[in-house]
Every structure is written in C-alpha cells, then in structure tokens.
Amino acid sequence: MRSKQVTFRGCMAAVCAMWFAAAAIPTSAQTPAATDTPTPGVTAQAPASTTPPAAAARPAAPAPTGPGGACLKCHEDDIGGMLSTKHAVTGHGRTPWGTGKACESCHGESTEHIRNTKVKPTVVFSKTTPAAERSAPCLACHQGGDRMHFAGSIHERNDIACNDCHKPHNAADQVRVAQTQAGVCFDCHKDKRAASLRASTHPIRSGGMPCTSCHQPHGSVGEHNLIKTSVNDTCYTCHADKRGPFLWEHPPAREDCTNCHDPHGTNTAAMLNTRPPFLCQQCHQTPFHPSTNYSGNNLPPNLGADKMLGSSCVNCHVKVHGSNHPAGARFTR
C-alpha cells in the first residue's frame, strides 16, 4: 500500500514539472514566423498609399495645336465658342480654319503680339478703329449675295461696321437668331423698340417676324433697306390678298401701305396710324357724311353712332383695300 502512494506522488510531481516548463516558453516562440508565400486563393493587397489626393501628380493638359493653337493658349475663354461655328470648319477651303490661317485671317499675322501680349494684334476690332478697317476683313470673303449692296448703304454711310452687329467669336450670333435679332437692332433703332411695345404690332420681339423679314440690313435697291423695291411689294410677300389687281382700286392703299398702317406697331387695331373715322377723314372730306365732324357727341343715342362704334367706316366700307365687285365703287362689297 505504501509503495502505491509513493508511485502516485512521483507521477504528480512529474506532471507539474512538465506544466511549469511549458509555461516558461516565450509566446513568440510558439507563433510561426510570417512568410512571404501567398496563401493559395487569396489575392495579396498592396499597402494603402499615404500620399494625399491633392498631392498626386496630374497630367498636364495638352497645349492647343493646329490652326489658332497659339491664340487659344490665352484666348480660349474669349473665342472658344468660335470652334463650333462655320468659321472653324476645316473641311472647307474658304473658311479661316480651312485655309490654316485661323485667327490670322481676320487679325493679321500679329507676330509681335504673339511674342509680347502687350502689343496689340495687327488688326483690332475696337470702337476706335475706323469702320472701314473693321469691315474690310469680313468683306474679303462675304462680298457677294446679300452683301453686294453694302457699299454705299445707309449702314455703311453711317460708319456701322460688321462687328457692330455680328459677334463671330460666339457660338450663336444673336443677330442671326430670330428670337434675339430684334434686340441687336433696337440698340440703335430705339424708336422702333418703343413701337414694338405698343398694343398692336407684328411679332417682332418674340422672333415670329424678325427685322430681316422686311429689311435687308446689308443694303438693298429699295427704300429703308427693304427686301423688295417698294413698301407695298414688301408687304405683299405676306399679305398677298391685298395685292390685287382690283376692279375698284383704293388709291392710298395702292400707293403706300404706310399711309394707313405703321408696321412697327401702334395702339390702334390693325396697326392703323389712328382709329377711324379720324383716319378716313384725313382724306374723305366731300359733302354728306364723310365731311361730318364725328366725335363723342355722336355716341348713342345721338345721330351718327354707326360711325363711332365697332369698325366705324369699315362697318359699311369693308373692302377698303380694293373691290372686284361690279357695284363695289364705294368698297361696300
């Protein structure tokens, strides 16, 4: 019995000695050393960059090349829109970009300006430059067609240069857009702006009928730079029903539409210069009712109310522009 107890105590002592020996070994020795061998099926990831995004190198923007490249280095904000216009079409041999001259086509070579920006280009389109010098580069290409009458026209005689109305550097030239054209013309023709704001007018400001519907700003053989040789022929391009010929002609209507109408606008219906019967009585002063001095005293129930209400004289004389009826001498039918 005593021998068994000694054997058990010896075994316990051995077990305790082995436990204390294992506890004394360092943790680092138990951990296997890290190796560079990647684990199969796992993609190695690069360490995160510590460089801030702002400090990362950015590729420099390529310098403009080709026609006008030297100018666009400085003037891209001013003339960048021109690259989307017909002037910048490279496939046409007559355009500035098609010839390879680009900006030099209008501004000259301007060699000194390229070397020193404080020196102005050879040709400058400022208000102080004479109008003839500013128009010369434009007329070198744009001389035929609708511009053939520009020399000696009222605009040319009044020192209006091409760039006073046109902005070739813009992607959309306002004077060539129907909705914005009137605003360019109104910069000088302020009386026409006032007329266009009246109650009865053509759709000028909205672009439904821009100024060039009637006028040729580059000059014409007609009066007032009209697109036709006379006022009436210009009006007939839209109002063909008033052209005639009529069996019974109304002389003032045949002579000039502006005898009765102001095409830019009035405060009277149908753009009449003044309302009937006062308009009609400027000419019709013969005996009987045409010569009667109508006024507010002729309103109902007084005599002559039919001349002051409704369409006044046109209540009866409905064919004031002319009549083809055999009995239409008085323009009543």
Give the tags.
333 residues, single chain, disordered N terminus, two-stranded antiparallel ribbon, mainly alpha, elongated, 27% helix
Radius of gyration: 45 Å
- Give the biggest beta sheet: 2 strands, antiparallel
**Helix/strand/pairing class, anyone?**
mainly alpha
Uncertain residue segments: 1-6, 26-56, 58-63
User: Beta-strand level of the residues, as a percent range?
Assistant: under 5%
Strands, total number: 2
Number of helices: 12
Q: What would the average pLDDT be, to the nearest integer?
A: 83
Give the terminus-to-terminus CA distance. 155 Å
Broad shape? elongated
SSE order, as H and E? HHHHHHHHHHHEHE
Q: Provide the helix percentage.
A: 25-40%
Major beta sheet, strand line-up: 1-2
Topology:
Elements: H1 2-23, H2 27-30, H3 69-79, H4 104-107, H5 111-115, H6 131-139, H7 154-157, H8 162-165, H9 178-186, H10 190-196, H11 231-236, E1 248-249, H12 251-255, E2 322-323
Antiparallel strand pairs: 1-2
Question: Could you describe the 3D structure shown?
Answer:
The protein is mainly α and 333 residues long. Among the domains are: 72-170, no CATH class; 244-323, no CATH class. It is built from twelve helices and two strands, in the order H-H-H-H-H-H-H-H-H-H-H-E-H-E. Strands 1-2 form a two-stranded antiparallel sheet. The radius of gyration is 45 Å and the shape is elongated. Mean pLDDT is 83; it is low at 1-6, 26-56 and 58-63.
